[in-house]
Amino acid sequence: MSEKTKADSTNEISRRKFMVTGSAVGAGLTLAAPAIVRSETLRNDTLNVAVIGSGTQGRVQLNACLNIPGIRFKAVCDIWKYNQRYSSRFLKKYKHDVNVYEDYEEMLATEKDIDAVLIASPDWMHAPHTNACLKAGKHVYYEKMMSNSLEGAASMVRTQKETGKLLQIGHQRRSNPRYLHAHDKLLKEANIFGRLTHANAQWNRGKSDDLGWPSKYVMEDAKLEKYGYKDMHEFRNWRWFKKYGGGPLSDLGAHQIDIFNWFFGTTPSSVMASGGVDYYKTHEWEDNVMLIYEYETTQGIARAFYQVLTTTSSLGFNERFMGLEGTLAISENPKWNEAFREPTAPEWDKWKAKGYLHKDEPKEDAAAVEDVIVDVRQSAALDAWEIPVVLKKKIHQPHLENFFDAIRKGTPLTCPAQTAFETAVTVKNVNKALASRSRYEFKPSDFVA
Q1: Backbone φ, ψ for residue 238 (5° rounding)
Q2: Which of 104, 137, 110 is nearest to 122 (CA)?
Q3: In 3D, which of 333, 303, 300 has the Cα closest to residue 316?
Q4: How distant, in Å, are the alpha carbons of 52, 198, 266, 332 from that of 183?
Q5: 117-165, pLDDT tens digit by residue?
Q6: CA–CA separation, 173 vs 396, rounded Å?
Q7: How is 148-200 classified by DSSP, letter by letter?
Q8: Rounded CA separation 186/418 (Å)
Q9: Does residue 322 have a cis bond before it (omega within 30 degrees)?
Q10: Which of 113, 114, 132, 187 is the 20 to 30 Å CA partner of 204?
């Protein structure tokens, strides 16, 4: 196959002249989360860190850490020499002298001064890698999904409780200052949207070819077999195979479904779903899924629609939460960054005065104003406001900062293990609804690890 390079670009967000913050807005308003065990006092503020899995997502983590003071990378572990070479050279450029390993058990046995491990290996190895690192006395940050199985995810929750080490899961929106501002200030404090009744979200990506690899970095069959892969194609495209990953619903959808649970303040009561392998005939996982959750919130029933498509990039990725008095449109992409007030809702001027929302004053030009005729079946355009919070960091950086602050200071984690497990249950049980072509009813016991 031809050599390909896949760049996972992380756009820095820059928005005009609004309130700029590099940390969580309303830091005093912490999220509901299990008690966090304070780590032992460190000799100094420098944390020694290792990385397991230095492919595309691992490099995103490395990049996000470069601007965090006091982080010293000591080791990189990956089974593929191409990833080893790329990441070790990248870190050396930034004065991090790292040891390189193929076997994570050898790394843990050798690197005695490691404080924390960042894990970005394929989903099916999250549980073995995480459990081993926690038992070795290391704090762990790993990418979502939590695991490719609920059994694996539950084992991680139990190991975290047994060891008392910190475990942060990479649902990074929970540390994003714009999302924190929307949740803590607009939804909870101001309640400007009123009762939330619906949500919808999507992540659409255009069609793409399977990943290839440089011919000089082909792994031998014996080595692939040792690490559980059939061939290089499965190794490079593990996300599409049920043994290794969870498909687009896990890779993309989990981020936004996690926000459903967070903003509604509960887990769903049921889900219906439809999807299929309609385009990529060599893949095992569905290339498109559409689903509807029901939530029994403290305010009443709410429903959330979600879609993930991999054959069109139409409108990208975003989330909307709709209430009786307004709508929130939000995304990691700053293009979606607005709140819309219903005509019957109380005025929002006082929230503008407090800096919670921003709106440009209308220009007084009567000649430019035209009468707008609205069809009787159509509602008038809603009053649009902007969320005045800017993230001028890489999108994963605040979440990693929260993890490192938890180690140093005992700061509560924004996405600890139990929270992520509830999201994993919410996502993984969609597969039961897909398989049975019927509604899946969640049970309280589903969310107990």
Answers
A1: -60, -25
A2: 104
A3: 333
A4: 33, 15, 14, 14
A5: 999 999 999 999 999 999 999 999 999 999 999 999 999 999 999 999 9
A6: 8
A7: SSHHHHHHHHHHHHHH---EEE--GGGG-HHHHIIIIIIIIIS-TT-SEEEEE
A8: 25
A9: no
A10: 187
